[in-house]
Amino acid sequence: MQSFFAPFVLLIKQKSNIINQNSNLKSQLLIKSYTFQEIKQKLVNYCVYQDRCHADVEQKMREFLLIEEAKEEIYLYLLKENYLNEERFTRSYIRGKFYIKHWGKTKIKIHLKQKGITEKLINKCFDEIHEEDYQKTIKKIYQDYSSRQHGLKEYQKKSKTIKYLISRGFEYDKILFVLEDLESEI
Q1: What is the pLDDT of residues 120-142, one digit of tens each?
Q2: What digits encode the pLDDT tens for the residues 65-100?
Q3: Please, which of 68, 102, 112, 165 could form a disulfide with 117 given CB 3.0 to 4.6 Å?
Q4: What role does it play (predicted)?
């Protein structure tokens, strides 16, 4: 009878040890309180480090558990001093995602909408991507990805590569335009 309950007793002891460890961790992780000026400076530093959108700053403010009046005052200060600028953020985001990560306009637009950026502003800022660069990028990705497809027939390579480009956010009509250009070169 004792051997039947032994694993359960051990389990209960282990659980109580874990609970005790967690309560010790909680006491070690004391929530630090900041003054209004310290929080304001932390948010300024947050915005200076890299361009941020309004949603990012609001999320950061939630971490500080601020009252509405304090949030509003900090928010207005960041806007007034130009630490927070939606257009600058959008342009920077578009440049980074296209020129560094090689995303297409569709994928960039979706991610910006998720961050609460208006479609009007997104479309206005897409002039950061030059059409010539856009086509060169599609061409380069197409050639790189297609060359890595071994053991497939040509139409399978083409189909798979087009699907890949679409998943990267490039528009189907732009892909076809570049493909026609590539085929005319051959």
Answers
A1: 999 999 998 999 999 999 999 99
A2: 888 998 999 999 999 999 999 999 999 999 999 999
A3: 112
A4: Modulates RecA activity.
The CATH topology of domain 131-185 is: Arc Repressor Mutant, subunit A (1.10.10)
The answer to whether 121 and 86 are in contact (CB under 8 A) is yes
> CB within 8 A of 83, min separation 6: which ones?
43, 44, 47, 48, 77
Q: Is 120 exposed, middle or buried (0-12, 13-18, 19+ CB in 10 A)?
A: exposed
Instruction: Give Cα separations from 154 to 139, 141, 143, 157, 168 (angstroms).
Output: 17, 17, 13, 5, 21
CATH 1.10.10 is right for the domain spanning 85-129: yes
Which carries the bigger pLDDT value, residue 181 or residue 168?
168
